[in-house]
Amino acid sequence: MLVPAVAVLAAANVVNNRVAPRLGPVTSAAATGALVLLARRSGLSWAEMGFERRRRGAVIGGALATAVAAAYAGGLATSRTRALLLDDRALALSRARLLEEILVQVPIGTVLLEEVAFRGVLPAALGRAYGPVAAVAGSSALFGLWHILPSLDMADANPALGRLTAGESPGRATETAPPGEAGTSGGRGVPAAAVVVGSVISTGVVGVFFQELRWHGGLLAPSLTHLATNSLGYVAARVARRVSRAKEGKAAQAKAQAVVTTWNASA
Fold first, then answer.
1. How far is it, in rounded angstroms, from Cα 171 to Cα 244?
2. Of 1, 102, 73, 76, which is closest to residue 42 (Cα–Cα)?
């Protein structure tokens, strides 16, 4: 069942990222259903796919979701970390679209499919065929590859995070390439290949961590952590912009006041 399962995921990935992103919840729900059907027909049990340990998963996932919220709050404290939160994919949305992303697109369009696929069906199938090491390594590698298409827009939408993902300093100026130059992301001087490779590696590592959560708390533990990370990221982006604007306004006001004071002193 591995080949048809990967084919379902590849099709959903293209549709969600390039063909019809707004229909992501519909596409992802259909793909999730197809994967579960394939898994059940191949003989995988609900427990093997992670549909177990709901109470423990809620405790673990709830604790980690709280930690994620605290990390975002900490990230808002300094200008350097706030820059990592300023993502145009959140900032360009209307309030209605923002709520849609938080309440519909992320839970159903992203978390549902990714957790059932990469922490449920694929590791169960790989584990039965090749053992537990292959289950973790294979599903995590595929989770990393799943993020190739989303990472192509990262450097434009979030320059600081794009630079960090590519292995560069988030605060380093990268206006070294003209807009639209081949091999760079939006002319910001960050090689597109570096962003993609960095994204694949980092999300693959996250996949290993989420798989560990799945072993201890079923699918619910990584799902709640994933949901908090993505949904609260939209909120954090908006708050980061508001905080940055407020601080810039205060700095400008202080500078103007200093000019007035100097002028009065010299008059």
1. 15
2. 1
Q: Which domain holds residue 107?
A: 2-248
Q: Is the pLDDT of residue 183 over 50?
A: no
pTM comes to 0.85
Per-chain mean pLDDT for the chain: 88
- And the tokens for 188? 């910001």
CB atoms within 10 A of CB 211: 22
pLDDT digits (tens, 9 = 90+) for 100-150: 999 999 999 999 999 999 999 999 999 999 999 999 999 999 999 999 999
Q: Is residue 254 part of a domain?
A: no
What pLDDT does residue 215 have? Answer: 95
Is 24 domain-assigned? yes
**Residue 149 corresponds to which tokens in the numbers above?**
């298409």
Distance between CA atoms of 256 and 92, rounded to whole angstroms?
31
Q: Are 88 and 158 in contact (CB under 8 A)?
A: yes
Question: Sign of dihedral through CA atoms 231, 210, 55, 38?
Answer: positive
Residue 136's nearest CA partner among 198, 206, 202, 201 is 206
Token code pair at residue 262: 């100097």
- How many domains are there within the chain? 1
Q: Is the pLDDT of residue 95 over 80?
A: yes
Residue 266 placed within a domain: no
Secondary structure class of 31 (helix, strand, coil): helix
Query: Which residues, in sequence order, are bridge partners of residue 191?
Result: 184
Q: What gap in Å lies between CA 43 and CA 21, rounded to an integer?
A: 33
How far is residue 47's CA from residue 218's CA, in Å, rounded to a whole number? 8
**Domain presence at residue 240:** yes
Is the pLDDT score of 189 beyond 80? no
- DSSP states along 126-140: HHHHH-HHHHHHHHH
